[in-house]
Design goal:
Blueprint lengths: L8 H16 L3 H12 L1 E3 L2 E3 L4 E4 L2 E4 L3 H13 L5 E3 L4 E2 H4 L6 H5 L1 H19 L2 H9 L3 H4 L4
Antiparallel strand pairs: 1-2, 3-4, 3-5, 5-6
Helix pairs in contact: 1-2, 1-6, 6-7
């Protein structure tokens, strides 16, 4: 896994979205919108997606480093948590974790983005519309999906 410690962290998710878009054909604008909505963090007055985000039991937490984010997720996993979201595209461990070899891989921005893009493609084929696919990406519950459409 590459080290992101010296990179512009606010741009990591955008770069991962570009890679995933090229690999899958999902419009990069769709991927960027999902990442920003799922992980947006305001820094220096600008809202940007943030790679080291964990949503644990409905509460989003933004970490300065990948190590801090992973430690938080592992600590909560050890206490029994299974339904939590990680990374640029807030993939849920309970529903998508089996697609990754480890939680570390699930946190990797490119791995996270490519999986999210493939998932979005399946949803797009089902819904026929990127907005509705984005809504279903967030939740199959209509009231929660609406804000994405």
């Amino acid at each position: 896994m590459p080290s992101y410690s010296s990179t512009d962290l606010a741009g990591v998710c955008d770069q991962a979205a570009i890679v995933a878009s090229r690999e899958t054909g999902v419009p990069v604008e769709v991927l960027r919108a999902i990442s920003l909505t799922e992980t947006g963090r305001k820094r220096a007055g600008v809202m940007r997606p943030w790679p080291w985000t964990v949503n644990m039991e409905g509460k989003g937490v933004w970490f300065d480093t990948e190590e801090e984010a992973r430690a938080f997720a592992y600590r909560n996993y050890k206490r029994g948590a299974r339904s939590f979201d990680v990374g640029c595209f807030q993939l849920n461990f309970k529903w998508h974790g089996q697609a990754f070899s480890s939680l570390e891989e699930m946190f990797d921005p490119v791995s996270n983005a490519v999986y999210a893009a493939r998932f979005m493609l399946r949803l797009y084929r089902e819904k026929g519309d990127w907005g509705q696919a984005a809504g279903a990406y967030h939740s199959r519950t209509k009231e929660y999906a609406k804000r994405y459409e």
